[in-house]
Amino acid sequence: MKYQRFVSLTAMLSFIVLAMSSFMLYFIPDRGVTSWTSWSFLGLDKQQWDNLHINLGILFLIMIFWHIYFNWKPIKNYLKIKKELKIFTKEFNVALIITLLFTIGTITMTAPFSLLVNMGNGFKARSSLENGNPPFGYAEYTSLKDFTILVNIDIDKALEKLKNKNIEVSSSKDILKTIALANNITPKDIFLIIKPENLKLKLPSDLPVGIAKKSFKKLILEYNINFDRLKKHLKEYDIAVSEDMTFKKLASKNNLHPAQLYNMLMASQIR
């Protein structure tokens, strides 16, 4: 076997799969949303695309190192000027500058690199808004019995509603994901079936995906937030808020990280 050909072909094929997984991870929403809605593409869910990206990335790196080993003489020639070895050639300097620009620009989140990152986050947020967030993290791994307790739904009424929709539940101790798979639906579908119209959810412990574009008026209705408490709490930090203001606008206006503002929101409801 020609090892140089093997290395080059393996590097090429692993790069194709790596590029595909990178593209998918750029656009698809976070794991919490994809698992809640049973999202998949080409038969693979978000976690599988993550795993594929990691392992194919490792394979690609191994092949690249091996490729460098086989092509070390040509690489050394790229670094020569008039047969004299010189690392910082014109071509190397340009390559180094471009690499540093992408690295530093991404770390510091400066334009246009921040635009690429924010576009990806925007796609994820839009998809999350369309698909809906779970009421709390890893809700799909909660038993039906515990789920109804956590979201304050009567278990008997929930079972009756599921029965009316021909959803088979062998045991209320089964997790939502198992029930969903057995009935060819999503955990989100189960929640929508058993959810009362006037149900008020509690604030999730983690920053909900897609919250940035929501107004506080919408958040009040969705999570039963005491707005007076929130205003009073934020006033202690010299932050003014109105119901029509979006979460993102308030964070940007006061130079706050979204997670910092969300923690303030949660703290205001506990006090």
Number of domains: 3
Overall 3D geometry? flat
Structural class label: mainly alpha
Whole-angstrom Rg: 25 Å
Average pLDDT, rounded to a whole number, is 85
State the helicity in percent bands. 55-70%
Oligomer status? single chain
H and E order: HHHHEEHHHHHHHHHH
State the major sheet: 2 strands, antiparallel
Give the termini separation: 70 Å
Poorly predicted runs of 5 or more residues: none
Number of helical segments with 4 or more residues: 14
Strand content: under 5%
Strand order of the largest sheet: 1-2
Number of strands: 2
What characteristics describe this protein?
mainly alpha; single chain; 271 residues; two-stranded antiparallel sheet
